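User: tokens in, sequence out, please.
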């Protein structure tokens, strides 16, 4: 279970999206309609805490090693958006 309201929001957003997203895209999604915007570091720390608990996976893109993607761990391989990221970490 998520330990903070932000980790709960991050997990819910990843489950809602259903496809791997970057930290920046996740931040933009979470900031939609938010009075006090989040910064990328906050979202990364929350996603990384969820990864440590096994709730989300971090994926890498073979064509760009610097970009990392996040996806909810509950539904592996259920992405229908055509994302081709591999290499969970």
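Assistant: Sequence out:
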């Amino acid at each position: 279970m998520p330990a903070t309201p932000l980790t709960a929001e991050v997990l819910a957003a990843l489950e809602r999206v259903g496809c791997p997203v970057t930290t920046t895209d996740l931040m933009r999604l979470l900031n939609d309609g938010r009075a006090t915007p989040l910064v990328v570091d906050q979202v990364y720390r929350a996603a990384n805490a969820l990864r440590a608990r096994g709730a989300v996976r971090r994926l890498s893109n073979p064509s760009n090693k610097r970009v990392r993607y996040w996806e909810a761990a509950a539904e592996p391989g259920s992405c229908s958006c055509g994302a081709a990221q591999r290499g969970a970490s």
